């Protein structure tokens, strides 16, 4: 398959593994690259810019194909040294960056000067248009089905992706609810140039997370995610467990504040969960596509299956319907 994204990123397949904190490490990203897709390391998984440089170098020992780095820009009281992370990305010769959170505008001059293409994750058309206006090469559109922070508008991918295609002049990548060849074929039909997946790549052999998490995803249905932080206008979609249900219940209490749930949702607890396999220890991110995860394949087999199934749908089923 050749699309604007495969040509732009110099990859074989229009399939992207989005950056996932504590998950997108060298083992995962290199396997995605070797399968002919595009993988993104998570910059902030590494505690320091120097350690990010080491992780980029470690990834290059496992693949000679293209991969990128995700730089998520969050509003915090004590922000990480974002410019230092960005400089490490540039110095390492990375040519594509996935940004998320706040606008990448402050970093565009340094990325542009280094010839780095920026793909910004957006949850609304207005944010996508802003990303285009500041010079992003493409946007990833996160529908309401997506894990993480799907925004406050609650617009699903079936509407949001074609709306973005209609409004923008740069390529659109579809994210949120995509996990297989049917999803890839649908995204291409909607006008997207690729799909980006997180939850589906989380449930692969190369993902460095506990097997208990993968077993949970295989057993899950489309009903097994939970929205939290709605009260605080920072909606997040996570897997439904005792902790996320407790957080949602606390939010319903009159006068509750984020400080009331903060101990339950700490990143430290989530990180421990991924390692120990105690699936009730904290929250963990998962999208509604959990209901379409049925096995734990190698990444090579997963990407091959997605692309082959999409090609079959396009060439045979849809062609036969038109005939």
From TrEMBL:
This is 2-nitropropane dioxygenase. Keywords: Dioxygenase, Flavoprotein, FMN, Oxidoreductase. It comes from the Bacteria. The keyword Amino-acid biosynthesis does not apply. One of its GO terms (molecular function) is nitronate monooxygenase activity. PANTHER family: 2-NITROPROPANE DIOXYGENASE, 2-NITROPROPANE DIOXYGENASE-LIKE PROTEIN. InterPro entries: Aldolase_TIM, NMO.
